[in-house]
Design goal:
Layout: H1 2-27, H2 36-39
Length: about 60
Amino acid sequence: MHIMVILIGFSLFIALCFLVLFLLAVRSGQYDDQHTPAIRMLFDDTDPKSTRTKISPPEAES
């Protein structure tokens, strides 16, 4: 039964270490995307088909 206490304590310690390392990586900016903003201007924002003016059908004359 003592081994269960040791294993649970050890697993909590390892999980806490991973959490601390993850938070340090996030704070240091490791996960910031620096590639996409540089190429964003190369993508079209609008669809070329949507810029055309629509021609309304002729109205029915009475």
